[in-house]
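Before a colleague's protein record goes any further, I have to sign it off. I want your independent view on whether this chain really folds as the tokens say. The record follows directly below this note.
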Amino acid sequence: MLLTGTRIVSRAFGDAYRQAAAIDSAAARAAAGNMKAASDGDKMTKASGLTVDESTKILNLDDVNNREEMMKKFEHLFEANDPKKGGSHYLQSKVIRARERIEMHWAQEKLLAEQAKAAEMAEAKEATDKPKNEPLDKK
């Protein structure tokens, strides 16, 4: 009877271990898949580990482009999670990463705007450099 009970318990532990391992690996694959889907082509998201959307949720922002509101909420959450005041170092780190990711987003937006402006100016210059009286094609 003791042998049968031991065998049943060991099988239950083995099954539980295999199930936990399967769930762990499935969760890891899903997380990697979600990160890849959220960050296809977005090197900043891969570098920071956060999307802009996640960052706005962490900082509880309505508008990602409102710099004043972002800094105000960042400072509040940073102080509220200060480990010296009984806060969480992990949460404070998340707040910092969220601020950094939003700042990366601003820099990216600024760069894209500058590139678009430069391309527009190049097109305008190219248009003014063309001769105005082009000869007509004769057939």
User: Anything to note?
Assistant: Residues 36-41 have pLDDT under 50 and may be disordered. The CA atoms of residues 17 and 24 lie 10 Å apart. The two ends are 106 Å apart (CA to CA). Helices lie at 2-38, 43-48, 52-58, 67-80, 89-129.
